[in-house]
Description:
alpha/beta; 2 helices; elongated
Amino acid sequence: xxxxxxxxxxxxxxxxxxxxxxxxxxxxxxxxxxxxxxxxxxxxxxxxxxxxxxxxxxxxxxxxxxxxxxxxxxxxxxxxxxxxxxxxxxxxxxxxxxxxxxxxxxxxxxxxxxxxxxxxxxxxxxxxx
Length: 129
């Protein structure tokens, strides 16, 4: 075996490790330690998703925002607003929320799932009107 063949075997064995490291770091969610701040923006759920679709939402990730809209889906794990923004049902303890209710929330903008066109928020709290 020549030196070039040995080098190629080494490089070929390192490539999957580097790929897994990149995937793990890109899929990692934001830090869980979060201190709520004054909302940077008050926006409807559909406008928030639109900002990400036109590549204007990256600066909102990790920031506190105020989102309003209509509940369009409630399932066992998630609640969806205006078919565009979702959050974990565990993060909001509300027994009296129903589909069709108008809500106003303060939350951290966590992520945008491009393949689904959905924006994820977390650390959600309901704003009473």
